[in-house]
């Protein structure tokens, strides 16, 4: 176990996102390889940004599942020397924190987004395997009242054995309201973190549909999974056609007024049904994670 960020040597950059930078690192003592995600805070960083980072840290420390990228440690106030090959520093004792670092299991196969870039589309058998693992991960999270909130190809990572796991809890939160009151789909901290809205469910954009209990929030993860599996089969983002303008307005039109989404001609009836159950516009009618785990497409 890593006691100090001094023990890690930076090898390469694995990814950039809204949240920060992810490095491939080597533990000097054991030569084990890890991924290190560093969220940097500027002096003027919005309070919401820090708050959500703290939320991400709390969640990754709590989750422990074979379907979720493992986090081995979170370093508060660790300091990364820019332009250097070595990560230095432990706590700077300031309490405020200039960055927050997550030491994670290294996912050698990259993201599902990388996989799709390389292979365009996946056969249904593989998609079924991806869906099953994501659903098991979601069952675990939802059981802990955690909404992932950002299921998309770049947040689904593949390990050396080809196993897919859920990553990036950068917009996740624990649903606390139980009946009564509306959820807060757009609290400012999460708004700051929105990289893309493309995988978000229609109800996320419609305050009228939010209600107490947070059921709609869990249903949002199911919608996103539906978009992801269809993308794997179609080989492109499925909600906006090749001839359509890839912008916010088009996406809204498709989500709110669009008919059935386009399916590959070769899609099996089981696949069509599975996607249909995920992309049900009314979240109350949408399949739940437990229902989908029983779906013939997975079995
Ligand atoms: P962000 O909040 O910036 O989106 P992510 O946690 O999604 O951060 O990481 C960004 C990218 O870095 C991912 O899409 C992936 O390509 C890469 N990455 C993240 N974590 C790992 C990991 N554990 N192993 C390998 N690559 C990773
Ligand atoms: Mg991400």
UniProtKB/TrEMBL annotation:
Its EC number is 2.7.12.2. Keywords: ATP-binding, Kinase, Nucleotide-binding, Serine/threonine-protein kinase, Transferase. It catalyses: L-tyrosyl-[protein] + ATP = O-phospho-L-tyrosyl-[protein] + ADP + H(+); L-seryl-[protein] + ATP = O-phospho-L-seryl-[protein] + ADP + H(+); L-threonyl-[protein] + ATP = O-phospho-L-threonyl-[protein] + ADP + H(+). Belongs to the protein kinase superfamily. STE Ser/Thr protein kinase family. MAP kinase kinase subfamily. One of its GO terms (molecular function) is protein serine/threonine kinase activity. It comes from Trema orientale (Charcoal tree). Gene3D superfamilies: Phosphorylase Kinase, domain 1 (3.30.200.20), Transferase(Phosphotransferase) domain 1 (1.10.510.10). InterPro entries: Kinase-like_dom_sf, Prot_kinase_dom, Protein_kinase_ATP_BS, Ser/Thr_kinase_AS. Residues 8-298 form the Protein kinase domain. ATP binds at residue 37. It comes from the Eukaryota. One of its GO terms (biological process) is response to other organism. The keyword Nucleotide-binding applies. The keyword Cell membrane does not apply. This is mitogen-activated protein kinase kinase. Coiled coil: none annotated.
